[in-house]
Amino acid sequence: MGAVSCSQMLAAKEVDFMIHGLVKFHLFGQELWITTTHVSILIVMIGLLVLALVVRKKMKHPQEFPTGFQNAIEMVVDMLDHMVENSMGRHAKKFVNYISSIFVFIFISNISGLFGLRPPTADFGVTLPLGLITFGIIQYNNIKYNKAGAFTGLFKPLPFLFPINLIGEIAVPFSLSLRLFGNILSGTVMMSLIYALLSPFAVAWPGFLHIYFDIFSGAIQTYVFCMLTMVFVNDKLPE
Questions:
Q1: Can you tell me whether residue 217 is helix, strand or coil?
Q2: Exposure winner among 58, 103, 138, 152, fewest CB in 10 A?
């Protein structure tokens, strides 16, 4: 029992799921760092940019009967179009580009652990801006369509509920960002613990668990973030 505890303690020292500073520099008297999160985001964005350029070139001369790569791209676009249309109805065209963009970015970020990266979405500094962008879109449409009702609605159904209604509005970006951050970070921590406790040659079991923690969980959290975004925006749009 003592030997097991000792080996677990030694393995635990090798667990690494933290954000690390890679390059330090100073700007306006402040010490700043390029971290593993910045590198991961850069790699993800370069990958998405290359993919976008390839798709653009491929779709300039599409096949009448798509196969292979073109067929896969059309299936993804069709899936995203239907997802937004089914949730937002006649307003779908205004938001399909934004929803599709954050869907692809969040999903690729979530599964980037499969390629040896630390998922960018396991950093609250990444998920919070996503939540704030969504919050801005929600409030913009609230004011655009409801005018003064965007403010008077905080006093309904009873005036003394104003503090609760206000907190409910402000909590939206934090709710969205913390949910995504917490779930992806938990998967990152679990995989780090498993790799630290297993032999370097034991790859089958961790590989199988990646299917859940990276692919399945990553897809679910992407869908939840996008679906909640559409629900919150829909709540501010006219019937």
A1: helix
A2: 152
Q: Tokens at residue 159, please? A: 């005036």
Render 72-103 in DSSP notation, one character per residue: HHHHHHHHHHHHHHHHHGGGHHHHHHHHHHHH
Q: Is the pTM of this model over 0.90?
A: no
Taking residue 200's Cβ as centre, other Cβ atoms within 10 Å add up to 6
- Using 50, 70 and 90 to split pLDDT, how confident is the model at 202? low
The pLDDT tens digits for 19-46 are 888 888 888 888 888 899 999 999 999 9
Produce one character per residue of 90-112: b if its CB has 16 or more CB atoms within 10 Å, e if not.
ebbeebbebbbebbbbbbbbbbb
Tell me the C-alpha distance between 185 and 82, whole Å. 30
Give the C-alpha separation, 68 to 74, whole Å: 10
**DSSP H or E stretch at residue 65:** none
pLDDT averaged over the chain?
A: 85
Give how far Cα 108 sits from Cα of 76, 94, 222, 233, Å: 13, 23, 9, 24
Q: Is 174 exposed, middle or buried (0-12, 13-18, 19+ CB in 10 A)?
A: middle
Measure the CA–CA gap between 5 and 11, rounded to whole angstroms.
Answer: 10
User: Which residues partner with 35 through β-bridges?
Assistant: 21
C-alpha gyration radius of the chain: 22
DSSP-derived 3-state class of residue 70: helix
pLDDT at 218 over 50: yes
DSSP string, 124-156: HHHHHHHHHHHHHHHHHHHHHHHTTHHHHGGG-
Longest dimension (CA), the chain: 69
